[in-house]
Hints:
Shape of chain A: globular
Radius of gyration of chain C: 22 Å
Mean pLDDT of chain A: 74
Number of domains of chain C: 1
Largest sheet of chain C: none
Shape of chain C: globular
CATH class of chain C: Mainly Alpha
Largest sheet of chain A: none
Oligomer: heterotrimer
Structural class of chain C: mainly alpha
Number of strands of chain A: 0
Order of helices and strands of chain C: HHHHHHHHHHHHHEHH
Low-confidence stretches of chain A: 1-11, 21-31, 130-145
Strand content of chain A: under 5%
CATH architecture of chain C: Up-down Bundle
Low-confidence stretches of chain C: 1-5
CATH superfamily of chain C: Formate dehydrogenase/DMSO reductase domain
Mean pLDDT of chain C: 92
Radius of gyration of chain A: 16 Å
Number of helices of chain C: 15
Distance between the termini of chain A: 32 Å
Order of helices and strands of chain A: HHHHH
CATH topology of chain C: Formate dehydrogenase/DMSO reductase fold
Helix content of chain C: 55-70%
Amino acid sequence: MAKLAGCLRAGLRLAVLAGVAALMAAPSSEAVAGVDLPKLERGKGEKCVEDTQFMRRNHMDLLKHQRDETMRKGIRTTRHSLKRCVECHASEKTGSVAASKEDFCAACHSYASVKLDCWDCHATRPGKKSAASPHVPSQVNGGGQ
Amino acid sequence: MSEHNKRDTMQERRDFLKAGAVMAGATAASGVLVYSVAHSRAPEEGASASKRWGMLIDTSKCGDGCNDCVTACNTENGLSGETGPQDSQYIRKLNIKDLRNGRVHELPMLCQHCEHPPCVDVCPTGASMRRADGIVLVDRHICIGCRYCMMACPYKARSFVHEPLTDQNPEVPRGKGCVESCTFCVQRVDRDEQPACVEACNAKGHQAMVFGDLKDPESAIAKALKSQASTEVRADLGLNTGVRYQGI
Amino acid sequence: MANENCINQGNCRTPQFLMLLGAGGLVVLGTLFAFFTLEHHGHVLTGMNNQVVWGLPHVFAVFLIVAASGVLNVASIGSVFGKQVYKARAPLSGMLALAMLAGGLAVLVLDLGRPDRLIVAMTHYNFKSIFAWNMLFYNGFFAIVGLYLLTLMDRKLKAYSKPVGFAAFLWRLALTTATGSIFGFLVARAGYNSALMAPMFIIFSFAYGLAAFLLVQTAMYLWNGLTLDERVLARMKTLLAVFVAASLYFTVVFHLTNLYFAKQWDYERFILLEGGVYTTLFWVGQILVGGLIPLAILFSPGSRKSLALVSLASLLVIIGGHAQMYVTIVGGQAFPLDMFPGYEMSSSFHDGVVAGYTPSGWEILLGMGGIGIAFLATVVAVRAFKFMPQDDFSALECEKD
Lengths: 145, 248, 401
């Protein structure tokens, strides 16, 4: 029963997001129903930790999974940590992922009208120093939250 | 999804091995970091029940009027340092006076990281939790802000965030409407560093706080507890606290 | 004649009904305003703090929850113990129980730090937590009492009213046990930490619930131009007196036990002698207004025939009940935790001193909402369904009690 509900929910969400993703993948933004699509700032580095399409549909599941692993079990892999997302995607202008409506998280979430409460507690900007301790190379450790 | 996770873990492992090789080179060259490398756990390895983090506080070494542990804690965890009735405090200096003989002394009071924490027992959602390695935490993702844990804690170790917050430390997320308390600086412990308060106490030269693994017979804290008398605060409650005191 | 100012029959005039709705609605609006303001600014606007974490809203909420389970007693006495006077009042009693529980729970939820996560509270259960058990009992109460109401009001289901009523009776005992244990299971604090909390809360609930029922019944008879039969009044007021006396008895035993334990002396000195507002609320509010005066009224010869006197006694019991909740909930937290027995303590975190607490206007608005919601639900339900007690006096004559 719970599984069924879960599937149903996932299915619904997938449908909605597929729609959003399709809109965002459209070649010209003004073409779709007269609504401007969010223009996302490109993150730092060459590419995201996952395929862009995959991220559009699944970032919330990855983050939620990581959140419980890190918080409750102390597993601190950084590949899908919110902190690392923020480090790459913080805006050049505002230094944040959600300070202005154009910033990475805020742009898409306000467009899709999906409220998120991550930023009630989590920092929207990268820390001043890279969090890794001196003797561990940063691609391995980062105390990802 | 599971396929994906496997890929994820493999990638992490490869990264880790690579890093390990780099590290081995670096440590061999510098010769300083061998100890911590030997003890650090891989990021994909969770907190383990084979450890139990604990703290031993020698109140006779605690400096009169010294507040360095508190200041360091506030900086590390992004607390304002204000001391109004609605402000958060993870660690505070207690002044206690023996009413029978007038003996006065000071000690830092913080979350005692109990083995049987009342806050965890009473939490309706399971947000208040004890990690495998004994660190008691609040999972803010499922904390509903009912404050029952604050009613239950015998040490008054918990605070409620009464106002919206911004500019948190990226490593220490905290926000309005949830309960919070000392985490033993879990973000530091997970990369083999000492909690901020202990570091500050040592930096000041007081050495009043010893942090370590209670289950490791070779650790400084286990040796000290084995050779000298120590007390639990409210030992009558039988909570088996992770923080012990000497000199009370 | 009776229809001129009635509110609970389909063919009544409606202005009075609408006025009542308006009054209740206004209170609930105030509550919603307070809720959204607090949700935006945080609990910084309340008098609650890290010392007194549960304040005035919880006093109102816990009172309503305790009284809600007690108000169901009227139905239980009818269905389970077969008393006619109470049988006729069972539907009203069940409906009031639901309305008051809804009001109390609403306040508890609106006061949460993260009320947006109510769904988390419903999906994540820590079964060691008595608080989580309370949530199960509350939800179950709605289901069982709802079913009970169906069996009472539907002729076809009437046969089931006795077993379902019995289940509802057991369930409400479990519920109040759990509510009392929210405090009873707090091992750390001198004011709680007692198995007596559970039975004491049950006895309190008997008194508060019956008092609330009597007040509502009085209002319903008045607003419909009807008179309550003296025989009915006499029975119910005697029962209230028994419950109030039993509440006093439990209070005495609770404090006597504490007075016998040396480690509890400081707490007792605080509540009974030196606690300022808490001491006053205890002696004047809980004992005098909520106990001794109602007892004197209820045992006075005049009260046998006086609806006004019985109503006054009921009102006093309810006021005393709020004083009791304030002393129990806020007083229990204001008294400092004793971490080092035999030592004096001080710190920047208000250790070793009596905690200050001054409720803000927002908390009053929030807390009143429970009463507002219960009132609105009652007014609407009473108009939409037949909850007016229908006494069968021929049966009453035969029954001895």
